[in-house]
Structure formats: C-alpha cells, structure tokens
Amino acid sequence: MSRRRHFILLSSIIALGAACVVGSLSYAAGKIAPGPTPIASVDIQQVLDRLVERGEMEAAMQALTGRLEDEVAKRGEAFQAQAREADAVTEPVERQARRDGVAMEQLRLKQWVTLRRSELDREYALRWEGLYRAILSATKELAESEGYAYVIVDDGGAPMTRDPRAQQPLTRQITEQIMRRRILYAATAEDVTEELILRMNNNRTGSSTAAPAGSSAPASTPPATP
Q1: Whose CA is closest to 42, among 140, 119, 169?
Q2: CA distance 59 to 90
Q3: DSSP code at position 175
Q4: What is the mean pLDDT of residues 196-224?
Q5: Does the predicted model carry a pTM greater than 0.85?
C-alpha cells in the first residue's frame, strides 16, 4: 500500500470516528436537555367573584353578622332602659348607686360587643382560609389532569386600588402595588380560569345535590352570650 493511500485510509477512519462521537454527543444532549415546562395562569379575582362556595360563605357570614347586630341592638335597648330607670330615682344616694351600676353595665356591654365582633372576624378569616385551601386543591387536580407543571396567578392586569383615607400618599400606594406584582404578561391560550371555576362549581353543586334528603351542612353558631 502506498503512503498516499495509507494516509487517505487513516484520515477516513479518523473522520468516521469523529462523526460517531459527535452523533453520540448530540443524541445524549437531546436526551438530557429538558423540554418546555407547561404553565397555565389563573385570574384569581374572577375565581373568587364567581365561585358558588364564595357566595355560600358570604351568605353565611351575613347571617351571623345580622344575628350579632340584632343581639347588640337588643342589649343596647335594655341598657338604655336601665339608664332611664336610674335617672328617674329621686333619692340622691340610691340614684348615684344606680348610675354607678349603669356605668359598670355599659363597660361590660362594650367589652362583650368587642369580643363578639372579634370572634366574628376570626370566623370570617377561617372561612377565607378554607376557601383558599379549596382553590389550591382544585387547582392541583386541574394541573395534574391537564399536565401543567405550574399554575400561576396572573396579577398583571388587576386594577390598582386607591384609598384617600389611608395615611400613605396615593403615589406610595400605587408604587407599592406595582412592586408587589409578579406577572407582566400571560398568554390567554394558557388561561385556565374558566376551567377552574367550572370544576369547583360543579363539584360544589354536585356534592350539595348528592346530600341525603333532610341533611344539611352544620350552620355556624355564634359563641354563647355571657
């Protein structure tokens, strides 16, 4: 074999080996490189505004608030009657004693109202937490069924709020809201707001329909009055 043919054969072998190595590396890179991550977005305000469970929660809290305010009015009327009776007493010592009793009763009434409204606020907060957990659970089910790795809250288009009564200047209020936002754009094709609302409302109405006749969810009962 001539030296020239030997050189050509050796070059061909080296080129073939290099091509095999490059091909193997490209195949390995293709196998290792991650694919696109499926992401969906949700307009949380629409979800909260249109959930059946949210409406049920608000109706229940309005009923609790109404019962509390009725009880406050009833106790206030009793207190006013007691104050009038004290003022009607003519004997100075007894009238003063009655007025002292009225003042003590007024203090107890204020404490009771403060306590009851605090309990009502705590109940409202707990119900909001429960609603949020229900949204998380339904979102997880939706993501797993549709193959989404992440479901993000699209907060970029939410309206800004301004409160002239707040201690902060309006400029500070707006800039802080801007800095708290995380999503500037989300494709509408990947918006699953409607699917999430439909899933949760169907589950809610379905569970209510499936309840045995005569059964109902236990209503919240206000704390016992002192």
Answers
A1: 140
A2: 49
A3: H
A4: 64
A5: no
